[in-house]
Amino acid sequence: MKAIVDQEACTGCGLCEQTCPEVFEMDGDKAKVMVEFVPDGSRDCAVQAADECPASAISIEE
Ligand code: SF4
Question: Which CATH architecture group holds 2-61?
Fold first, then answer.
């Protein structure tokens, strides 16, 4: 599984970092994905972060 943050859409709210800090990290006023592949133990929170992103900026690829 891969997670991708659309840098254009991200508003920098920080919610994804709070929800899934193993995968998402704030980099200035945008979120970035820290891992090339989402570890198995972080899949649920990565999906949750994508679902809850207020800007719908996170996409998940299997
Ligand atoms: S939850 Fe969405 S809008 Fe907020 S920082 Fe993360 S990617 Fe950006």
Answer: 2-Layer Sandwich (3.30)
